[in-house]
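Entry for zinc ion complex. Fields follow.
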Amino acid sequence: MSSDLYNKLVVYYESVYFSGKHKLEKDLQRIMSEKKCSREEAVKILYREVFGEETRKEQKPRDLEEALAELKEAKKSYSSFVKMSFLVLFVFFALSALSFNFGAALVVWFIALITIVIMGIISKTRTIEWNYSEIMILDVEILDLKEYAERTIVKFQQETLEACKYSLKENSLTVTVTPTTIISKVVTDQYGSRQVSEEVDLGTLTIKADFEKEQGVTKVRLTYSAEVKVEYADYAAAAYEKTIVGFKTALKETAFEMKPKKVVVIDFAKVLEKLKKSGVILKAVKCPVCGAPVKLPEKGDTVKCPYCGSTLKAIDVYKLLSKILNI
Ligand SMILES: [Zn+2]
């Protein structure tokens, strides 16, 4: 049960944080030390914080996949309408053939045909609206939103090869894509019946990202909205998913790239301090070139071998010692 909750937390954290599992472990540690509880209890507490009470699970908002599945369903109900229409037509046709009053049956059949054709045209050109929103947390405070937005767009276009339009207003970035796809279908005309490829328009997908700076993190509220012909809803769902995932990846990767990198300076003072802590007294190291003993200085980050003149770097000495002494 608890590992089940833990796995759900992992999925959630991986989807909203760049280093999701690491952040999850940190949060669990925090709860364990705050509430002085076991790890198992910490998982339960965190689960409630994230998803609310388990009993309210039914009210949990649909996730992106479920939302896209709804879009695909729209196409399915359209297809079953087409199938049903053919069935109705066939039944009418059979009835009219069996009927003694052939003329009257033909009229009924003809009316049914016209109705179905009209309804078919209406439902084929009908468009449906789709929308979904979610929150993503980037574990970095983005200071220059303009630079961030521009770099995200470049990355997004490189990765998805999708042309897009975008605009940035204050803390809100809006991206519009108009995906298309090639479908093949059978066309019958005076030259006979053959397969043709056709480029179809998959509507317009608008992604709006609202950024909110918080201490150490940036909260992004993502809203997706689209309108597409029912006929192509399933193709659209697949294309939207690819675009949304690509956009989210670009957001995460750009944030990671713009995160200030920690700079650690290793000098001899630090090396000696580490050694002191681990109880090792080190008088000299062997020169890697001539093998003579080189006395470690108390400061600076390089030292010259007094015998051959080679330069030893504090960072190399540190790396070597950390391997041997495990410090
Ligand atoms: Zn030397």
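NOTE: The CA atoms of residues 205 and 226 lie 4 Å apart.
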